[in-house]
Write a structure and sequence with these properties.
Bound molecules: zinc ion
Number of strands: 2
Order of helices and strands: EEHH
Structural class: mainly alpha
Low-confidence stretches: none
Strand content: 5-15%
Number of helices: 2
Oligomer: single chain
Shape: elongated
Strand order of the largest sheet: 1-2
Mean pLDDT: 72
Largest sheet: 2 strands, antiparallel
Number of domains: 1
Length: about 70
């Protein structure tokens, strides 16, 4: 029985060993970017709420970086 360190993704709450992943502590680059966007949104006090299309260009990169295994 190997030691595990499962935590919920900070964005979508899906539990897994994200600290072992390059995207950790998030389940994917997409959630990582969403979190980054939240921080930037607070810092710069953007009045416009973040929408999924703000990350559309990053999702294209995500397809390349976010390999399943
Ligand atoms: Zn997630």
């Amino acid at each position: 029985m190997k030691p595990t360190c499962e935590i919920p993704c900070a964005i979508c709450g899906k539990p897994s060993e994200y600290f072992a992943e390059p995207t950790g502590p998030f389940c994917s680059n997409r959630c990582k970017l969403i979190d980054l966007g939240k921080w930037l949104g607070e810092e710069y006090r953007v009045s416009e709420p973040l929408r999924p299309d703000h990350f559309a260009e990053f999702e294209e990169l995500g397809g390349e970086l976010d390999r399943p295994e």
